[in-house]
Amino acid sequence: MSKGAFFLTAGILLLLVVFLWLMTLVVNVQREELARPTPTPSPVPSPTPIRDARPTARPTAVLETPLALVESTPADGATNVPLDTTIVATFNQRLSYDDVIFAIQPDIRYRLRTNGTILTVEFLEPLLPETEYTYSINTLQQLRRVFVFTTAPAFAPTPPPASPEALVN
Q1: Which residue among 60, 79, 87, 136 is the one 20 to 30 A from 104 at the CA level?
Q2: Domain ranges, residue 90
Q3: Looking at residue 164, what is its pLDDT?
C-alpha cells in the first residue's frame, strides 16, 4: 500500500471516529435533558372580576340576585283588556331586550323596548276583540312566566238609561 492510500484511509477513519464521538455526545446531552424534571409553573390565581359602579344597559355576568319578574300588566287572568293595550313587565334588575325572550299567541306583530328594569311590548296592530291571548316572558337566566288575558269586545256596551225613579231619588 502506498503512503498516499495509507494517509487517506487513516484520515477517513479518524473522521469517522470523531463523527461517532460527536454523535455520542449529542445523544448523551439529549438523554440528560429528557431525564431532568421540568419545572411546573406555579398556579396563577384567577383575577377577581371588577364590577363597574356605573349603571349599564346590560346585566353584569355575575349577578348578586337572580333576575325576577316583579309585575306584569295586563295581569294573568285579566279580562276586558283594551284593544290598544301594551304589555309592561317590571323586573328587579336592569336588562336589555337581548336578555328577554317574548312570545305571544295568537301571533301578532310587536316591538320590544327596555328602559332600565322595565320591558314594554308595543303591538304594531290592534288586538282582536274578545280574544284570549297567552304571552310568555323568558330570560337567559331560566326565568319562565306565562300569562293569559282576554280582550274587551270591539264596542263596549253602553249602560242602560237611568230609570225616571232613579233620577227623582
Answers
A1: 60
A2: 69-151
A3: 62
DSSP tag of 98:
G
Answer yes or no: pTM beyond 0.85: no
Among candidate residues 76, 92, 86, the one with its CA nearest the CA of residue 143: 92
Q: Are residues 79 and 32 in the same domain?
A: no
- CA dist 58 and 139 (Å) reads 13
131 occurs within a structural domain: yes
Query: Stretch 90-99: mean pLDDT, rounded?
Result: 86
Q: What is the CATH number of the domain that holds 112?
A: 2.60.40.1220
Q: Give me the phi and psi of 153, to 5 degrees please.
A: -65, 160
| Cis before 45 (ω within 30) | no
Same domain, 89 and 32: no
Number of domains in the chain: 2
For 77-93, b/e burial (b = at least 16 CB within 10 A) is ebeebebebebebebeb
**Is the CB of residue 65 less than 8 Å from the CB of residue 94?**
no
Same domain, yes or no, for 88 and 144?
yes
Q: Are 126 and 83 in contact (CB under 8 A)?
A: yes
* Digit-coded pLDDT (tens) for 139-149: 877 789 999 99
